[in-house]
From TrEMBL:
The lineage of its organism: Eukaryota, Sar, Stramenopiles, Ochrophyta, Bacillariophyta. Coiled coil: none annotated. This is RNA polymerase sigma-70 domain-containing protein. InterPro entries: RNA_pol_sigma-70_dom, RNA_pol_sigma70, RNA_pol_sigma70_r2, RNA_pol_sigma70_r3, RNA_pol_sigma70_r4, RNA_pol_sigma_r2, RNA_pol_sigma_r3/r4-like, Sigma-70_RNA_pol_init_factors. Gene3D superfamilies: RNA Polymerase Primary Sigma Factor, Winged helix-like DNA-binding domain superfamily/Winged helix DNA-binding domain. It comes from Thalassiosira pseudonana. Belongs to the sigma-70 factor family.
Length: 338
């Protein structure tokens, strides 16, 4: 049947030995470093860099840069293909456990394939974030990313009302413009201000906001026999609520991801207002580049100075960042989550 054919097409690649994962992972890390440098150049130049500029910034010639990119891209593809079985396993379990699984074989097949496609997105993200030098197997790391993306797919199916793609785009645009206004005004904007910024009426603005809300209650009971929701009632101990399906896979919603991305961008811009030495210390101290915060002693060793010297630089930098003219840039994110 279609599911069997789909599984066979995904799971036909050979498994990798740990040594192979390390070699491939290192190649992917090189690719991520090159792409990171390209993004830095784009921010600096305010346009995409030429291959010559990119090569110069990464100590490559143009031919060697292109060769390295091809080599690393092949390694990334090999790492993904060898672990597609993980996607199949996670997708099958998620669809099987989902309270919204269709009783129709054809519809169930589509749900499974959708979950697999989303899982591949998670697997791809895992290859980009994997550090082979930490010593653990790639599958141990990748499974979390796959589960995260598949869970998002299952949660999307929990909507009673499907939101069109054009509406989702507009909803995301509203969120972005709200953030822009917050930064400009230093406060939460009014509905009139947001509507004007987005070129909408207030009524249309509220319509899009309402469309973004989940229409199923976390308190609704799920009938374990039918997989359908029913109103919560006191004596129904056999039914499970939607909350248990969300609790096990708590991941950011699309709007929360937008918030996170914008906050990260604002933090990067904020840190750039510091002196070069202060920027370096703050980035290392809080792990802004690699997610790995470092101790004052470690940073001191990198710069060849005493720990106390780094502590003073950090204190001075944090004092600057707390100034109202600077802190107002990110204050809106704090108010949203308190």
């Amino acid at each position: 049947d279609s599911i069997s054919t789909y599984i066979k097409s995904l799971g036909q690649h050979e498994l990798l030995y740990k040594e192979d994962e390390v070699l491939l992972g290192r190649q992917v890390r090189l690719l991520m470093g090159l792409e990171g440098k390209r993004r830095d150049l784009e921010e600096e130049l305010l346009r995409p860099p030429t291959f010559a500029q990119w090569a110069s910034a990464t100590n490559h010639t143009v031919p060697s840069l292109k060769q390295q990119i091809r080599r690393s891209q092949r390694a990334k593809a090999a790492l993904i293909e060898a672990n597609l079985r993980l996607v199949i396993t996670v997708a099958r379990q998620a669809v099987k456990k989902s309270p919204f699984r269709s009783s129709s074989h054809a519809a169930s097949s589509v749900q499974f394939q959708d979950a697999c496609q989303q899982g591949i997105i998670g697997l791809t993200r895992a290859t980009e974030k994997f550090d082979p030098e930490l010593g653990f197997r790639f599958s141990t790391y990748a499974i979390w990313w796959i589960q995260k993306e598949v869970a998002k797919n299952v949660n999307e199916q929990s909507r009673t009302v499907r939101v069109p793609g054009s509406a989702i785009k507009k909803i995301n645009d509203i969120r972005i413009q709200e953030r822009v206004l917050m930064n400009e005004l230093g406060r939460r904007p009014s509905d009139d201000e947001v509507a004007e910024k987005c070129g909408l009426t207030v009524e249309k603005l509220n319509f899009y906001r309402q469309s973004a809300k989940e229409v199923k209650s976390l308190d609704k009971k799920i009938d374990s026999r039918t997989g359908k929701g029913s109103a919560a009632s006191g004596g129904d101990d056999d039914g499970k609520t939607m909350e248990i399906f969300v609790r096990d896979t708590e991941h950011p919603s699309p709007s929360e991801l937008i918030d996170q991305q914008m906050m990260q961008q604002d933090i990067r811009r904020l840190v750039k207002t510091l002196s070069p030495r202060e920027q370096a210390v703050i980035r290392l101290r809080f792990g802004l580049d690699d997610g790995k915060p470092q101790t004052l002693g470690d940073i001191g060793e990198k710069f060849g100075v005493e720990k106390e010297r780094i502590k003073k630089i950090e204190a001075r930098a944090l004092l600057k960042l707390r100034q109202p003219s600077r802190s107002s840039v990110v204050k809106c994110y704090v108010s949203d989550h308190t």
